[in-house]
Amino acid sequence: MIRKSRRKREHAEIWPWCRSLRALRQIHGLMVVRGFLSDPSTLRELIFCSAISIPFAMPYALQLFDQIPHPDLFIWNTVIRGAAHTATPLDAVSLFSRMELSGARPNKLTFPFLLRACTKLSSPFLGSQFHSKILKLG
């Protein structure tokens, strides 16, 4: 989800043009050239498009994600969500471990994606581990 703000944006939203991996790469290149990668909202849109909007673009999303020095909670949740919906949902669990090691705290949006990954993995043990974390964090 992209948040609306009252201040006027300096650039147009990119997600309407992200319809393929090729278009995403072109937009990413344009963002590098124009310096938009330093703009957090544009970076969030790029990660959202690659992890959620475009089918089979999750590996590209992970490449982008690995280049972000200090991802915010929205970016963490977006890549975890994207990974949970792929054929390799264990990536979502790995990303959550990285999130915890980085010191970022999960919120109420993080755990439903992880529980979905546990369901796809058919792992009730892992699901119960996350359920315990949910109860602990409130």
Automatic annotation (TrEMBL):
PROSITE patterns: PPR. GO terms for biological process: RNA modification. GO terms for molecular function: RNA binding. The keyword ATP-binding does not apply. PPR repeats lie at residues 72-106. It holds the Pfam family PPR_2. Keywords: Repeat. InterPro entries: PPR_At4g14850-like_plant, PPR_rpt, TPR-like_helical_dom_sf. The keyword Repeat applies. PANTHER family: PENTATRICOPEPTIDE REPEAT-CONTAINING PROTEIN, TETRATRICOPEPTIDE-LIKE HELICAL DOMAIN SUPERFAMILY. This is Pentatricopeptide repeat-containing protein At5g15300-like.
